[in-house]
Backbone:
């Protein structure tokens, strides 16, 4: 029977996998996917806490987080499309026009 | 061995139901192949297949044997993993959606079982959402088929088809939500049992079709668009796009797409029957024979499917998308509002 | 038992997401990870969240990602140097980023290992969809409406940003 700690450890592992993806990958779409992994890890810990404390608020927060994640993914992908049109590349290192 | 059978008889019956549904779905696909060709033939004033077996009844078997014996081709530039995964996803989603659809009351198999066995695979209390979720997984089969074939027609057909499917999913969901308002539960078995009251003195006739005719039309239209059937089958039309997303598929992979399309039709008809046509309730039919009434209603809806395919011209792609977003979605939202208002003020 | 299966599936799928070169495979593996998470939600007595996870995340957001990947014909990461060397060995920011990721893992593992005694779950109240709906429309109604405005803003923003800019030249 898994305890709350097991779910939290799983959520932490998934969160760090997402963060590692954001740091290490050089492809804009994969970076967005890693952000989605992070959001999902957070959703999991919300639902786990909601269950452990016996309230339903955990699921309500997850509802809102999912909605915001959907909106953010849509806008993020629109930005990626606009950037790709400009530079024909999905490598974030290609967008260095404002660097000193 | 009989001792094992009698103590675990419920488990064996459950497994039996799963196997029965699986076989029944495949047989229904075979029957649909035959029915489509015959009905299309009579609509076009010819007779259709008559040579294989009596009146062509063994034609589906001939078709399956032909498909099995064909050579399995894969374009050299196609991604092998995705190319073979796509029909598997399509077929799996089509079969899996039937796991939460109840198709009868309960049966005791003519006295063999100690307690009545309800006729479904699983009764989840969020069954409507599960059906919706699994049908939205079916989009992936199509879009991956289009992409992995690495050919222009396939990619265009795959993208258009999946865009069409996700657009019509919205109206599909809104129509579902309106039924939810009427029935106060998401479990399909509860929704069907809520339609077992009496209407105008006729028992077992309180179908939601009479409370929501527009909702039924919206659901069925969205269902036709979801399964990529005419008049919404532009993405796989022979005259326009070679064969759309399954251009490069042959033999059993194509057979799997074919199978998935027919089983999706059966699933949409089954869910429509459960939601609007009263499921297995029919006046003057006892509940234990309800599954026959269910089969009859599904057959009527499938006949409508075939009839519409061979009578109506097909929508052009931009007309199709405009219809889905600008006509069907506002109408379904208004239907939901009207239903909610009706339940609030008339206490239905 | 099922928890360990779903947890292992989620972790393996997420690791493969960030390790894959081909973005299409990454998206499909992420869908698999979402499916595993959905199973975990069912184990946590949250069937509504489980199904809307599949409908919203795996069924809509990932389709959007897949469309963008396919329409942009997204190339995987360029330069043979990137493909041949391990992230820890690449120069500069990437090595720093990989070190930071490892540091974060170590920190979280330490923090969780020394926390409170393992608390098992209490008996949950009936989590029905009706209860969620009731709360959403009474206590959290304002947040609900604000979310709908947020989605509208995001929709308009996405359409405007992804539009082609040559309308002026065509007159």
Residues:
């Amino acid at each position: 029977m898994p305890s709350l700690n097991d779910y939290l450890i799983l959520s932490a592992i998934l969160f760090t996998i997402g963060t590692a993806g954001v740091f290490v990958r050089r492809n804009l779409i994969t970076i967005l996917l890693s952000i989605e992994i992070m959001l999902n890890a957070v959703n999991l810990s919300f639902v786990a806490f909601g269950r452990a404390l016996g309230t339903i608020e955990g699921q309500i927060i997850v509802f809102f987080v999912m909605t915001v994640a959907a909106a953010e993914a849509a806008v993020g992908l629109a930005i990626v499309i606009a950037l790709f049109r400009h530079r024909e590349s999905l490598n974030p290192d290609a967008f260095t026009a404002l660097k000193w | 061995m009989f001792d094992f059978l009698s103590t675990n008889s419920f488990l064996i019956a459950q497994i039996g139901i799963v196997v029965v549904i699986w076989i029944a779905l495949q047989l229904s696909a075979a029957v649909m192949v035959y029915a489509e060709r015959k009905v299309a033939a009579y609509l076009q004033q010819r007779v259709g297949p008559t040579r294989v077996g009596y009146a062509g009844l063994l034609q589906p078997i001939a078709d399956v044997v032909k498909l099995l014996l064909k050579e399995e081709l894969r374009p050299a530039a196609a991604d092998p993993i995705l190319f073979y995964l796509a029909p598997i996803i399509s077929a799996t989603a089509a079969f899996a959606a039937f796991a939460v659809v109840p198709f009868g009351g309960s049966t005791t198999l003519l006295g063999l079982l100690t307690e009545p066995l309800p006729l479904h695979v699983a009764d989840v209390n969020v069954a409507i959402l599960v059906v919706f979720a699994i049908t939205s997984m079916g989009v992936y089969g199509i879009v991956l088929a289009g992409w992995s074939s690495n050919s222009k027609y396939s990619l265009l057909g795959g993208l258009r088809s999946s865009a069409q499917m996700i657009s019509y999913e919205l109206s599909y969901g809104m129509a579902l939500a309106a039924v939810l308002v009427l029935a106060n539960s998401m479990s399909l078995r509860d929704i069907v049992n809520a339609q077992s009251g009496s209407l105008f003195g006729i028992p077992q006739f309180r179908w939601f079709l009479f409370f929501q005719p527009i909702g039924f039309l919206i659901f069925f239209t969205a269902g036709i668009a979801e399964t990529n059937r005419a008049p919404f089958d532009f993405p796989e039309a022979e005259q326009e796009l070679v064969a759309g997303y399954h251009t490069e598929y042959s033999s059993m992979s194509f057979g799997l797409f074919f199978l998935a399309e027919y089983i999706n039709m059966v699933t949409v008809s089954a869910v429509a029957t459960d939601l609007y046509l009263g499921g297995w309730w029919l006046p003057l039919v006892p509940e234990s024979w309800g599954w026959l009434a269910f089969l009859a209603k599904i057959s009527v809806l499938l006949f409508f499917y075939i009839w519409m395919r061979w009578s109506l011209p097909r929508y052009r792609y931009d007309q199709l998308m405009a219809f889905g977003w600008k006509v069907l979605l506002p109408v379904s939202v208004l239907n939901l509002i009207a239903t909610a208002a009706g339940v609030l003020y008339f206490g239905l | 038992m099922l928890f360990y299966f779903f947890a292992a599936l989620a972790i393996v799928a997420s690791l493969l997401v960030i390790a894959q070169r081909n973005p299409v495979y990454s998206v499909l593996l992420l869908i698999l990870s979402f499916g595993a998470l959905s199973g975990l939600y069912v184990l946590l007595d949250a069937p509504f969240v489980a199904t809307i996870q599949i409908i919203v995340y795996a069924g809509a957001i990932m389709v959007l990602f897949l469309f963008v990947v396919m329409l942009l014909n997204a190339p995987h990461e360029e330069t043979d140097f990137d493909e041949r060397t391990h992230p820890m060995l690449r120069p500069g920011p990437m090595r720093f980023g990989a070190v930071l990721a490892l540091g974060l893992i170590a920190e979280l593992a330490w923090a969780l290992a020394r926390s409170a005694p393992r608390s098992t779950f209490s008996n949950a109240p009936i989590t029905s969809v009706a209860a969620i709906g009731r709360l959403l429309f009474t206590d959290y109604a304002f947040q609900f409406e604000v979310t709908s405005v947020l989605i509208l803003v995001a929709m308009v923003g996405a359409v405007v940003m992804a539009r082609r800019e040559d309308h002026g030249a065509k007159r």
Q: What stands out?
A: The helical segments of chain C are 2-19, 23-43, 47-72, 80-84, 93-113, 129-138, 141-161. The radius of gyration of chain C is 21 Å. Chain C is about 70% helix and 0% strand.
